[in-house]
Amino acid sequence: MKRVVPPCLSRRRAALGGLAALALGPAFGQAPAWPARPVRLVVPYAAGGPTDAVARVLSSRLAPMWGQGVVVENKPGANANLGAGEVARAAPDGYTLLVGTGSTHGINPAIYPKLPFDPVKDFVPVVQLTDSVLYIAVQPALPVKDLRELVAYSKANPGKVNYASVGIGSPHHLAGEMLKLRTGADITHVPYKGSGPARQGLLAGEVQLLFDSAVLPLAQAGQVRVLAVTSARRWPASPQVPTAIEQGLPDFVVSGWYALFAPAGTPAAVVQKVNADVNKVLAEPEVQERVKALSVVIQGGSAKDLENLVAQELARWPAVVKASGAKFE
Length: 329
Description:
Elements: H1 7-24, E1 39-43, H2 50-66, E2 70-74, H3 81-88, E3 96-101, H4 103-111, E4 123-131, E5 135-138, H5 147-156, E6 162-165, H6 171-183, E7 188-191, H7 195-203, E8 209-212, H8 216-220, E9 225-229, E10 258-263, H9 268-282, H10 285-292, E11 297-298, H11 303-324
Parallel strand pairs: 1-2, 1-3, 6-7, 6-8
Antiparallel strand pairs: 3-10, 4-10, 4-11, 5-8, 5-9
Helix pairs in contact: 2-9, 4-11, 6-11
């Protein structure tokens, strides 16, 4: 006699069979959940700098969230091009990510005729991490109180206004070149080896003008006068300081942002997961407090937001670099 199986029992067996198939899935080629092994965050700068510090804050929070190690690897060289090029050539599996900056995905493509990577074709934007700005500061003895007066003074006193930067091709240098290009200001670039020496140059009277991110304490002490900030809107740390845009210079934006990029071809699901998890980390009060000490602010946002930022940066710098005459091989 043929045995009749009750419908409820058939459904139960089918369900159990489905669970067994799911359990056996990886054995038959189903990809394991990401991440299944440690993830590398490549920082294209030396250890100890602000980019490195932000990456280490991020790795310390992502590791327990992912249940895998998140290793920060410093790959300095060629003004960040070395590390960026390494990530561009890495396997597009989500296990190697770049902590990119406004240099790797903004200025460098304009200033280096041959890069070991294409900032658009070789990378997938993941998420912006932080943002920072430059302040335009002068010696208190200089008889100017805003950018209009600075420009007018420089034209009336040709050759007498020198500006300091942290080096040729830096955002600090090109901010001065942008001011010259937009206004015709008569100012001369004096490169220093780092932010500290540049600030000392201003305090010692070697230069009269400085583009720098860490001058607020000097301004509060009366040692320098801050004329403007290079953000699109007034900066949270200094709401009393007007932007260059407010002072009649449209789109005068120079920011020192950091962001995560993955090699081109990285699965969209992995990019989405990293974006979502990093945004969770950036929203943590403890992380915001630790990052605040680095003179940067938390940004976050979507991968599309970062894609738009890169497009804006790539469009902003070629004309400025050409006017500056700066080129590196």
